[in-house]
């Protein structure tokens, strides 16, 4: 293959990657456009350190959007998340929950809970990779706070 052809293919490949990661349903773009995102808080979740609230505030600042928060039962909120009716769920979840295959769970919000079977996490809809990337950055920030 000639050098010119290889350079052209490389340039085309790099141009195609400019928007990676992408959201399959456009969550992050929609959140930024509407300046709002929907959050479900799992009722009864242990957030004694306030890390869940700090995460929501950090995500709001990063996304330039206002959170609309509702509390409810885990099953109901996770079904809404899977259906795209809410954007983020924060709450206590078992690592071996059946939902682990249906939605994306972050690392525990507390580094001390890394090996716990149940911990406070952020959950997002699978395939919303740009939104998940933003969440991961904010989870790491919250994890680093005392």
Descriptive account of the structure:
The chain has 146 residues and is of the alpha/beta class. The chain has a single domain, classed as Periplasmic binding protein-like II (D-Maltodextrin-Binding Protein, domain 2). The protein is 40% helix and 22% strand. The protein contains 5 helices and 5 strands. The protein has helices at residues 3-16, 27-34, 51-63, 74-82, 129-143, and strands at residues 36-42, 66-72, 88-94, 103-105, 118-125. The protein has a 5-stranded mixed beta sheet with strand order 2-1-3-5-4, sandwiched between helices. Helix 3 (51-63) packs across helix 5. The N and C termini lie far apart (56 Å). Residues 6-18 have low confidence and may be disordered.
Strand and helix map with partners:
Elements: H1 3-16, H2 27-34, E1 36-42, H3 51-63, E2 66-72, H4 74-82, E3 88-94, E4 103-105, E5 118-125, H5 129-143
Parallel strand pairs: 1-2, 1-3
Antiparallel strand pairs: 3-5, 4-5
Can I get a quick summary?
With 146 residues, the chain is of the alpha/beta class.
Query: What is Rg?
Result: 18 Å
What is the highest CATH level, the class?
Answer: Alpha Beta
| The CATH topology | D-Maltodextrin-Binding Protein, domain 2
Number of domains: 1
CATH architecture classification name: 3-Layer(aba) Sandwich
The rough form would be described as globular
CATH homologous superfamily caption:
Periplasmic binding protein-like II
Question: Helix segment count?
Answer: 5
